[in-house]
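Researcher: Next sequence.
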Amino acid sequence: MAKAQKPLDYRTIHEIFTRFRDAEDHPEGELHHVNAYTLVVAVALSAQATDAGVNKATAGLFKIADTPEKMLTLGEPGVIEHIKTIGLFRNKAKNVIKLSQILVDEYDGVVPSSRAALQSLPGVGRKTANVVLNMWWKHPAQAVDTHIFRVGNRTRIAPGKDVDAVERQIEDNIPAEFQLHAHHWLILHGRYICVARKPKCAACLIRDLCPFEDKTA
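Model: Next structure:
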């Protein structure tokens, strides 16, 4: 088994996130939503789909169904009609209706604010729960997706063999003052600069601090 990489030292990580903060002090997620419920639905729909694709599909959906009760009235066929451009739309529509019913039956139509309660909803895993906790309740939860997993390992900010390990490394190694926005800085960096195939190292504001050996010109 390959030996796990050692994270960068505290001083370097602090400087990296200071630069991220100086460049964008309040980074925001790119999924459109109007309340906690529509955020849960949007994040659940975003699995194996792009934020842009989800936003396009939910633009009309959320105008007529922005509460669990309204979504249940719309029904599964109605949800499918709105989200059929998204991958796995049939299963996702089924989950949206199921989670809406649970919210009405068990939570009086209100989205719960604990990770365990959120994860009990169909189609809501740990990553989705963490996004909702972070974006809606401003809890410093770290939602590790493919972008963050790549950036965490490539830069050694938060190296780990799986998403759970990277999540723990982020929580353990990134200074507290940066925790709230850490996952947004990392995901945006991975989405637009530290991309998978050919990272845009020339445009990277942490190039001099990054130990990645195969930097592009």
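Model: Residues 89-107 form the longest helix (19 residues). The two ends are 32 Å apart (CA to CA).
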